Amino acid sequence: MAKSGTFSSLHDWLISEDFTSSRQARLHSVYLGWLSLVANPLAFAGFAVVLLLIIVAALAPVIAVHDPFAQDFLTALQAPSATHWFGTDEFGRDVFSRLIYGARTTLYITILVTVIVAPIGFVIGATAGYLGGWVDVVLMRITDIFLSFPSLVLALAFSAALGPGIENAVIAIALTVWPPIARLARAETLTFRHADFVVAAELQGAGTGRILLRHIVPLCAPSIIVRLTLNMSSIILTAAGLGFLGLGAQPPMAEWGAMAASGRQYLLDAWWLTTVPGVAILTVSLAFNLLGDGLRDIMDPRNG
Amino acid sequence: MSMIKAHHLAVSYGHGDNAIKVVRDVSFEVAKGETFGLVGESGCGKSTILGALAGRNRQWNGSIEIDGEAIGQKRTRAQLAKQQLVFQDPFGSIHPRHTIGRTLLEPLEIHGKDRRQERIEKVLTDVGLPLNFRYRYPHQLSGGQRQRVAIARALILEPTILLLDEPTSALDVSIQAEILNLLKDLREREKLTYILVSHDLAVVAHLCDRVAIMQNGEFVEIASRQQLLENTVQHSYTRVLMDGSRGYVAGAHDHLRRRPRTSLPA
Question: What is the CATH number of the domain that holds B77?
Answer without folding.
Answer: 3.40.50.300
